[in-house]
Design brief:
The protein is of the alpha+beta class and about 250 residues long. The protein has helices at about 40-50, 70-80, 145-160, 180-185, 230-235; strands spanning about 20-30, 55-60, 80-90, 95-100, 105-115, 125-130, 135-140, 170-175, 210-215, 220-225, 240-245. The protein has one domain (about 20-245): 4-Layer Sandwich (Deoxyribonuclease I, Chain A), CATH 3.60.10.10. It has a 6-stranded mixed sheet with strand order 3-4-2-1-11-10, with helices on one face. A 5-stranded mixed sheet has the order 5-6-7-8-9, with no helix packed on it. Helix 1 (about 40-50) packs across helix 2. The chain is globular, with a radius of gyration of 17 Å.
């Protein structure tokens, strides 16, 4: 493997208008199994290199164990970024869940258990990241499949933001299939509504399952879907990228 990212902390890139921006991406990796059925961690690493984001929120990440690969370790090696694991399933045989990769220092990490009844374990990884002297609170999550589950989970997440002292980015795979679903309507009460771009499935994108929410909203410049030859096969989700005024 070769490193795909220069070591060290880079300055945020400049826009055409001379503003500095942060690139924040969310990406459901589907365990690094592409739509061709191949387990290909290096292909995921190449997609991350294409995006070259300052912060990645990743979902469906194998995190090691006796019977499971450590995909996050592979991606950290390939990108040379700081890595934070947020397992939602943790047994001797298998660790699995959310993760964050970032070129900036991580100042604090908190885990939020969002598991609902006997359904698949869910959680949120809440990290304070120092982006060139400004600390951003980045909350990476993967909500449940049932609407009743998501309603409870989003309330648990929002309880953490009653009095936001830091700028906040909430992002991940929200699994909300409905354009005006209750989950999205509830999030609008706390966060700026970003564009809903279709990211799933990559063969023929129909649903905006992957979302990025920003507070304060005026910092959000735009969001894009990263569609390339690699990203259309590497996972069943496309990455979503937010450009944020630094």
């Amino acid at each position: 493997m070769t490193l795909m990212h220069k070591p060290g902390i880079d300055q945020p890139p400049m826009t055409l208008t001379g503003e500095r921006e942060l690139r924040i991406a969310t990406y459901n990796l589907h365990g690094a199994v592409g739509i061709d059925g191949k387990f290909a961690p290096e292909r995921i690493g190449e997609v991350l290199a294409e995006i070259d984001a300052d912060i990645f929120a990743l979902q469906e990440v194998p995190l090691g164990g006796a019977n499971s690969p450590d995909l996050l370790a592979v991606l950290q090696y390939m990108t040379n970024l700081n890595a934070v694991a947020g397992p939602t399933l943790e047994t001797p045989a298998r660790r699995y869940g959310n993760a964050v990769l970032t070129r900036y220092p991580v100042r604090a990490v908190h885990m939020l258990d969002l598991s609902f009844k006997s359904l698949e374990p869910r959680g949120a990884l809440d990290a304070d990241i120092d982006c060139n002297g400004e600390v951003w609170r980045v909350v990476a999550t993967h909500l449940g499949l049932a609407s009743s589950e998501r309603r409870v989970q989003v309330e648990q997440v929002l309880q953490r933001f009653d009095t936001p002292e830091l700028p906040v980015i909430l992002l991940g795979d929200l699994n909300e299939w409905f354009v005006y679903g209750r989950t999205l309507r509830r999030l609008v009460t706390h966060f700026h509504r970003a564009s809903a771009l279709r990211t799933f499935p990559t063969r023929y994108p129909l649903f905006a399952l992957d979302r990025i929410w920003v507070h304060p909203g005026e910092r959000l410049m735009r969001v894009d879907v990263h569609r390339t030859r690699l990203s259309c096969v590497a996972s069943d989700h496309y990455p979503l990228i937010a450009h944020i005024r630094a």
